[in-house]
């Protein structure tokens, strides 16, 4: 039976009245044959979904389609039939296989028009480089008639936001991750927030946890998750941490914050010992560095299996020079002896993968560089065993001026790179615990 579009629109409005507020359902589509071939990974869809969750927009589907006009048209028709908002990343460039806005424009029955501001930017780009602009570059400055053209602050191709009062809305974003993220955060999200604000005010809060797995965290909060209505709880497992996104819907920001505070208090009561921070950019390394900076404390490090990754994570944070004067990478046993002045007999007796060596590395580093704290890493990253210790065996040492030097043993059952990154994050976790 064929269903009339007007009937669907009326039913949607009827459901909105029953629910008592506007509930947006979105679909995210990534465009690019290279992703289907496994040459690159689609990271855009995750960023978009998390951003839409901030706005209280539910993402029901993810889709991936190659640079094929007929298959793109098929995917777009399907998405429009079941979603209020379709977000597409990729296919906005100047090459013949960049077809996204052409296919969407054809579906909407709209023409493409030129954004003169973007066109001027493209011409200036080629003029500064003393290169000829080919006709196909003009496509990057074009957008769908009736849409909002979204300026690209870090690239050339404009984005599009098309709002249909009686149908599906479309948001078109660049495929390059840095361009997509910039446009999505600075242009698209504010536009979507205003467009879909409705009668409800939506607020989200991101809680970040370290030292507990997703399944364990969800188990401890199972009744809260099962009974959730408002606010909602959405867990996300990331490498070496788990996050919970709490989203509240109320009549005002104050109402939302009260709801979020109440829910967070319940969560903290159960798993507060694992909660280290809030927000998208508040990583565990940045939390540790900020705690050290606020207290006027300093930190140094010596690394073996992690090869300087811990120190690189510190120095990636603005202002780290206030707390981190330097450290050592002592990959070979000889360098532990020469740079850290560790007694060769200690290494000979206990080995480099040992509690004794890890503790000596941390203490000697702190004494040599004269810092308040020092952390050390030694172990077998793999894939082969080291000194009879299986791959993934890691000792992390910690020394402080007002505490006994200690070392702790970990077993990370991962591949070589994951062992190294897990060790680094665990080192930050130990420091965070010590700092309180």
TrEMBL record:
Gene3D superfamilies linked to this entry: 3.30.70.2860, CinA-like, MoaB/Mog-like domain
Similarity annotation: Belongs to the CinA family.
Show the CDD domains listed in the entry: cinA
All copies of domain MoaB/Mog, residue ranges: 27-194
Q: Which InterPro entries match?
A: CinA, CinA-like_C, CinA_C, CinA_KH, Competence-induced_CinA, MoaB/Mog-like_dom_sf, MoaB/Mog_dom
Taxonomic superkingdom? Bacteria
- In Swiss-Prot or TrEMBL terms, this protein is called Putative competence-damage inducible protein
SUPFAM superfamilies the record matches: CinA-like, Molybdenum cofactor biosynthesis proteins
The species this protein belongs to is: Ligilactobacillus pobuzihii
